[in-house]
From TrEMBL:
HAMAP family the UniProt entry points to: NDH1_NuoM
Reaction catalysed by this enzyme: a plastoquinone + NADH + (n+1) H(+)(in) = a plastoquinol + NAD(+) + n H(+)(out); a plastoquinone + NADPH + (n+1) H(+)(in) = a plastoquinol + NADP(+) + n H(+)(out)
Protein name: NAD(P)H-quinone oxidoreductase chain 4
Stretches assigned to the NADH:quinone oxidoreductase/Mrp antiporter transmembrane domain: 133-412
Molecular function via GO: NADH dehydrogenase (ubiquinone) activity; NADH dehydrogenase activity; oxidoreductase activity, acting on NAD(P)H, quinone or similar compound as acceptor; ubiquinone binding
Keyword match Membrane: yes
Topology of this chain in the membrane: Multi-pass membrane protein
Similarity-based family: Belongs to the complex I subunit 4 family.
Record Pfam families: Oxidored_q5_N, Proton_antipo_M
Gene Ontology cellular-component annotations: endomembrane system; plasma membrane-derived thylakoid membrane
Length: 542
């Protein structure tokens, strides 16, 4: 059978960038033509992504696929090297889906529309580049590239404190990303060969002291993006000032880069250091869950409350990665996909509400359920998904993370009990602040804080209903039939877990305890070591 070797990933990555060239020449006065053009490019790129993956991606192969490698700057060892696997492929689909809907959500942008849609398309390409790069130097360049459009989108189209929020965002993320460059150079030049290829870097064996240093630096870089407490303070400010479409991308895609980087670089390339740091990740994850939930409860700004909620939910990604087994890592990836959809839906509906009320302060809202029943229904559905209602994706992902940690051989029972109990406290607080938000915004005394009649509010329009429905349908679909999502990455998470489990018994036999405090897992007994090795063998056989 004749088969064309199509460079799918280059086409998907470069299409939005190339499309930007035509924007200055499109005749347009009020932005209507430009928004249709940008939406058409977004849809075309997402359709190309789906078609390319459906045609040539093999779900049963855990290795890099659709590999493209072209010399770019040979003097620096920089190659245009792209590839995808079970970790990056679903996140690229999430990127195309959420970013296209964010472009559709920016229908009312009239201020500098040419620049706005140019930046949105550049951001589209930058995000895909981060997930598709298989060269660590290219990964760093794409990581830096996506920062610039976000900074400009916040600083130009944001709220009253947009310059402060944008500057804080760029300082945190740009400074932290230096550790990616330093760590990448250290890994590339270690040993007999110099390479930035991620597959080759994963095959290298580093001294444990070097692994620990590299892991710590990369944890800071990705921890800012995730974000991990106490590196999170830029996020509420950025969300509070960004426009709704930018917040959709920020929460739906950009935060997932932190989790992706932890799995791709920290876990895959530095598995021995990951065993050392895994208990720390579990503790940081619990702090994120509890702190984010409690902080969200005290926020009076609607978007800042949802931003703190994102901090809480991303804590489950850390706990899943820290579980050191297939179930935990699978739960972490599913949580990233689930939260990407849920957060995008909630921030979009936040924007819909703001367009009617011209305020984000919860205390100035109330009684809007009667005048905007469709917005209320959609907001309620998104909130139910966020609080992990059974039948929605959030429930499946967070339950998988809990089961992953509970079934982990790497931790003592007291440690697992404490972590699970504290994370459950965060789950209990989540419905409280979300349901309280719904009650105060949509119920209560009518006309509270408004100088005009609530009956003048226009309910959700067909375009807004379509965007929200596009996000809510996969949330329900994954909740009812998780295999829709899990089949895209199951083979890869098994391979990653096997890699960690192969390192765990050897490491445990050489240590009396992973940490001297005795809180974490003791040295494994021979029977447990044998069990872990058998699990690893089964993973290889799969």
């Amino acid at each position: 059978m004749f088969s064309l070797n199509i460079p799918w990933l280059s086409a998907i990555l470069l299409l939005p960038i190339v499309a930007c060239i035509a924007i200055p020449f499109i005749p347009d006065k009020n932005g209507k033509t430009l928004r249709w053009y940008a939406l058409a490019i977004g849809i075309a790129d997402f359709a190309l992504t789906v078609f390319g993956f459906a045609r040539d991606y093999n779900l049963s192969d855990p290795n890099f696929q659709l590999v493209e490698r072209y010399p770019w700057v040979p003097q620096l060892g920089l190659n245009w090297s792209l590839a995808v696997d079970g970790i990056s492929m679903p996140l690229i689909l999430l990127t195309g889906f959420v970013t296209t809907l964010a472009i559709f959500a920016s229908w009312n942008v009239t201020y500098k529309p040419r620049l706005f849609y140019t930046l949105m398309l550049l951001l589209y390409s930058g995000q895909i580049g981060v997930f598709a790069a298989s060269d660590l130097l290219l990964f760093f360049l794409m990581w830096e590239l996506e920062l610039v459009p976000v900074y400009l989108l916040i600083s130009i189209w944001g709220g009253p404190k947009r310059l402060y929020a944008a500057t804080k965002f760029i300082l945190y993320t740009a400074l932290a990303s230096i550790f990616i460059l330093i760590g990448g150079l250290a890994m590339a030049f270690y040993g007999d060969t110099v390479t930035f290829d991620m597959a080759e870097l994963s095959a290298k064996h580093y001294p444990i002291a070097l692994e620990l240093l590299l892991y710590g630096g990369l944890l800071i870089s990705f921890g800012v993006k995730l974000p991990i407490f106490p590196l999170h303070t830029w996020l509420p400010d950025a969300h509070g000032e960004a426009s709704a479409p930018v917040s959709m991308i920020l929460a739906g895609v950009l935060l997932k880069m932190g989790g992706y980087g932890l799995i791709r670089l920290n876990v895959e390339m530095l598995p021995h250091a990951h065993i050392y740091f895994a208990p720390v990740l579990a503790i940081l994850g619990v702090v994120n869950v509890v702190y984010g939930a409690l902080t969200a409860f005290g926020q009076e700004n609607l978007k800042r409350r949802l931003a703190c909620s994102s901090i809480s939910h991303m804590g489950f990604v850390l706990i899943g990665i820290a579980a050191l087994n297939e179930l935990g890592i699978s739960g972490a990836v599913l949580q990233m996909l689930s939260h990407g959809l849920i957060a995008a839906a909630l921030f979009f509906l936040c924007g819909v509400t703001y367009e009617r009320t011209h305020t984000l302060l919860i205390e100035k809202m109330g009684g809007m359920a009667k005048s905007m029943p469709k917005v209320f229904a959609l907001f309620t559905a998104g909130s139910m998904a966020s609080l992990a209602l059974p039948g929605m994706s959030g429930f499946v992902s967070e339950l998988t993370v809990f089961l992953g940690l509970a079934s982990s051989y790497a931790y003592s029972t007291p440690f697992k009990v404490v972590v699970i109990f504290l994370a459950a406290v965060g789950l209990i607080v989540t419905p409280i602040y979300l349901l309280s938000m719904l009650r105060r915004v949509f119920y209560g005394k009518e006309n509270l804080g408004f100088e005009f009649d609530l009956q003048q509010f226009v309910d959700a329009k067909p375009r807004e209903i379509a965007i929200a429905a596009c996000l809510l349908l996969p949330i329900v679909g994954i909740g009812l039939y998780p295999k829709v999502a899990t089949q895209t990455y199951d083979v890869k998470t098994t391979a990653v877990a096997t890699q960690v489990q192969n390192a765990l018994p050897v490491f445990a036999q050489e240590q009396d305890r992973l940490f001297s405090g005795g809180l974490f897992a003791p040295k494994l007994a021979p029977s447990q070591t044998t069990g872990l090795l058998s699990i690893a063998d089964l993973g290889k056989g799969a």
